[in-house]
Design a protein that fits this description.
With 426 residues, the chain is an all-alpha fold. The chain contains 20 helices and two strands. It has one domain. The radius of gyration is 21 Å and the shape is globular.
Length: 426
Amino acid sequence: MDNMTLALILFALTYIGLLVFAKYRAYIALCSAALFVVFGIMPLSKVFSAVDWNVIMMIAGTMGTVALFIESRMPAKLADMIIDKTPNMKWTIVALSLFAGVISAFVDNVATVLMVAPVALGIAKKLKISPVPSIIAISIASNLQGAATLVGDTTSILLGGAANMNFLDFFFLNGKVGMFWIVQIAFIAATFVLLFIFRKDNQPIKNDDRAEVSDYFPTWLLLGTIVLLILASFIPADQKPEVTNGLICMGIFVIGLLRQIILKGNMDSVKNALKEIDYFTLLLLSGLFIVIGAITEAGVVDKIAEIFVSISGGNLFAIYTLLLWASVILSAFIDNIPYVATMLPVVTGIATAMGVSPYLLYFGLLAGATLGGNLTPIGASANIAGLGILRKDGHEVSAGTFMKMSIPYTLIAVVTGYVLIWFIWA
């Protein structure tokens, strides 16, 4: 049996396990990563570099800062404000998804989930309801909006580098509207799906208990994280470390810890912040990065790219349709970062050979690969982070529960983007 066949078998078994045994996802991913190394598919020397340490550090740092943020009672205060402005539970969930979506267009979607989810937890605790629907809505809205701007997601950053696009090109490019506006229309269409899903949740919400913020400094730390992440996005990739975002998030967290120790002498707060970091999710992501690195090493991702080229038949609509919808399906199960990185030069070659502008295929690839991750609970880092927060709060979410919301939401968003991109850029 050759390496590619063995890699595909291991990969399939891994993802079946991840979907079926939700409580053991981290252990399954790590065991699978170990098997790829044992069978010689993934060289031991490449294991460390396969892990996206920028994402791992960013999640760990933001989780720590968010723990300080929660302790300050600011999420409870924001929960009060949202409850006051929404008439019932349906609109509360929609408001949270809109809030997360707006932030995620300008901040990495994982960081957005980590920032907004505590607000949803605060609302759920006040109203004595399950936070599961709200946090799923936050996760999928955040992931959708990652395709809107150059800084919204790693896939957007990859496209910007390959196509030499700047931040403003995502708004208007060559006299046409860019991905930002296409994503916003898709976001609005998907929001109507949420309204339909929760159409029966019209119970009024009442809040008699008012929260008081005990410390505003953690709020400033989170705002500082957002501003620094946006500013860092304007620095060319070859002029900054690959772990820049991770260093920012970890640095902000360390500042928060040092303030608690030096100025406030509050060691309990420091211990609580360190304890609140979701190490299970970090291990899961680390294992998945190694697994994806292994199938890339085995040539599986390159083979996928070859298939796209061979069956296009020189028809622009056919290759655009195939590229977008195959990206949706593949990104539901594999990490979209190595996939997009591999497909970008292929897309450029196809456009050059056909004598057409590459932007139609670029945007089709971005829409399919980014939005497709919302189909399953393991298709996007934002979804994994959201479910990790729920697990820490005592809520195990099955793949079926997640996909009841994510599948209709994703399909409406993708269909909207698919049609708009074709008519604007074909």
